[in-house]
Amino acid sequence: MRDSHSIFGRRARATVPCLVAAAMVVLLATPAEAGPPFPPKRRSTHHEQSARDYVGREDVRLFITEMVERHGFVRRELDKLFSKAKFQASIVKAITPPVTPQARSWQAYRQNFVTAQRVEAGLRFRERHAETLARASAQYGVPEEIIVSIIGVETVYGRNMGTYRVIDSLSTLAFDYPPRAEFFRNELEQFLLLARDNNLDALGVKGSFAGAIGIPQFMPGSLRRFAVDFDGNGQTNLADSPVDAIGSVANFLASHGWSRDQPIAFAARVENAAAGRIRAMVDTGIKPAVRLAELAASGIAVADLPATLGADTPLTLFELETPGQPTEYRIGLQNFYVLTRYNRSSLYASAVFDLAEALRSAARPVATLLPVSAPVLPPSPVSRTN
Ligand SMILES: [Ca+2]
Fold first, then answer.
1. How far is the CA of 288 from the centre of ligand 1 (A)?
2. What percent of the chain stands above pLDDT 70?
3. What is the pLDDT of residues 37-68, one digit of tens each?
4. How far is the centre of ligand 1, averaged over its atoms, from the C-alpha of 214 (Å)?
5. Which residues are catalytic?
């Protein structure tokens, strides 16, 4: 169906191949994900020039042609849009890994998110949206604390949703950050479709430097695919509706394989970390591929494991490093892996888990805040009480 009045031309229901998680800051910043340092392409010899003429660039012309042919966008409308898109050097700077990568500090990372203030604000958010959280948890099987925690980690419950124009973020990263150009060109495409489908002013949408949008910081592809209208007002609005944000986070996790009432992660005691067998387990990666029975066979102790977990339960053994301190080890189950689909980092998923644990502890009848500045190794999974 053609709607020539729509600013972006024909409305098309495109399939969304993009499975990427939202808010990929950590992933994108990891050295493993980065390629060669930033060299501007073709006509632009330095940042300022590309700021002036995205619409005149050959690679952008090609992209616009693709959008016209693939989705029926009106060329002159896209020309107009990209004539206003601006290169932002600060975005490239933010996403480029340091030249000499330093070991990331788990404790420093954790202290950004698991704070008394964020727990307090999370409890207020939880109280304010108690009904919605209960409904989302019942419908999608995701614990309320996990939903609250993700929103808390992403934007401090909607307070910091980002100040970049998404068109600037995605244009800069799609056309002037070659290591991730393919990913961001796809997100730019998704963003154009999102704007058209929802009659949004593409120049007016704000987000993070990476183009993540709204209270839960969904990338455009994830937004189109996983966001839901949870308040039932006929629109999916992640920037203004905490209710839609709550439902969307729960739907995202459920869609990525969240298992209702199943545990998430446990602290592990690893005595002989240097052993080849242990290293091999850690190096297996974040996808649960180690069997529970292998832990005991390797001398790894995990407290409070539910007896219901079979010897064949797949898990991942991962380490959380802090320079100058002993490395923390944890095991993550399927639900931990699902958290890493939101942001592909075990640091991120662990911070979400710990903030959720702190919220759960603080919400007990006799409320006593965890000493959140100290390492908290939760003895039990978040889902225990849910
Ligand atoms: Ca809505």
1. 35
2. 81
3. 334 444 444 444 445 589 999 999 999 999 99
4. 13
5. 154
